[in-house]
Amino acid sequence: MTSGPAQTPSEDTTAARGVVDLLGLLAYAELVSFFRLADDAELAPSLADKGELAGFAATEQGHYQRLHDRLVELGVAPEAAMEPFVAPLDAWHARTEPQSWLESLVKAYVGDGIAGDFYRQVAVLADDETRELVTGVLSEEGRAGFIAKKVQQAVADDPKLAGRLALWARRLVGEALSQAQRVAAERPHLAALLVTEGAEDNAESGDLAAVSRIFARLTDAHSARLKAMGLSS
Amino acid sequence: MTSGPAQTPSEDTTAARGVVDLLGLLAYAELVSFFRLADDAELAPSLADKGELAGFAATEQGHYQRLHDRLVELGVAPEAAMEPFVAPLDAWHARTEPQSWLESLVKAYVGDGIAGDFYRQVAVLADDETRELVTGVLSEEGRAGFIAKKVQQAVADDPKLAGRLALWARRLVGEALSQAQRVAAERPHLAALLVTEGAEDNAESGDLAAVSRIFARLTDAHSARLKAMGLSS
């Protein structure tokens, strides 16, 4: 735990500021995802599904709590760390309001996936403890399996759904990338973490090229997730 | 754990059926309370308060999960056990929709309180394991303290609020008693648990008298809770 890169969040380096941004972003993302999942559960067709979704929502709250506590540990007010990300994340959710139970499942799956890829990418250059926390918070295999199975089943029952849900997924990822670009522009320390990592592949490339390459990688991972749900990209 | 009254939920006695009703009622109450708290958190004035309320909601989900698992353990489908209580609990929530953050806090406090009194009363005659589970699920001291402090502070800042919030609390308890009477009429096995316990005080009294006496006791406890929030009854 004490090995790894020397930078720790207590040092006032670009990386340290990036880490606070990362934790703040992830904390607010978990909190708002908790609220959205709880809202969406009202669309669930059965009491059992409602209960299941409530469980997913509660897991998000648990993650929020851990990230919140980590920020407190670092001497940072969690609310101040989250504040810069309220507008872009709220905007993403406002622009991607599910109109059905299935749309809400696809959103949870796609949203988690994109967010997970992004956070893992950024966490590579964070200090060890932050990286472990972020990685731990992101490992929710049971949930992804439950959702993929439900969507697959629905598409098998009514193949017409496949095209509509794939379009919905494309809108989700488009809106996510547009908010991510906004965040990258507004939060240089966070973007720096992303770019430094991207630059490992190609030290010649400028910041924008690195960001584009990372976004391309996220898009590939998105296609793999669509396949897992039985949707084509 | 193996001492205590002989009846266990696996025996098809009135008490056993009452216990399944109790667990089903409590499970659905926790699930719906989870959803309502998560909804109400949107009214919270700050990110910190939102996070706090999300934590309360997640606690309800944890309780739901434990009650759900206990029903499964007893060989009962949790959804079947919850079903009879969906209409009365949804009706209570529909008739008591908070219009402000403070109303939502008072509702959480009053609703928890009434529910807790009621469940504890009924659980007295349940089997040991059920009683322990119910009592454990109901012990949420930190939360009650947080809410009472917030309401007290708001009333201290603006004394005009006291009367309005006390009226709101009266409406909450009135609607709860009306739904409880409906449940007692529709679920004789559950009502029997309540009445048997009430009858310990006065073996001569009929069912209705016992129920009324219990309701009177609940109302007294309600007045004590109003005082704790700085409201008069």
TrEMBL record, chains A, B:
Chain ranges of the Ferritin-like domain: 17-196
InterPro entries named in the record: Ferritin-like, Ferritin-like_SF, Ferritin_actino
Gene3D superfamilies given in the database record: 1.20.1260.10
Bilayer-crossing regions: none
Recorded superkingdom: Bacteria
Pfam families reported for this sequence: MiaE_2
Protein name: tRNA-(MS[2]IO[6]A)-hydroxylase MiaE-like protein
Organism of provenance: Actinorugispora endophytica
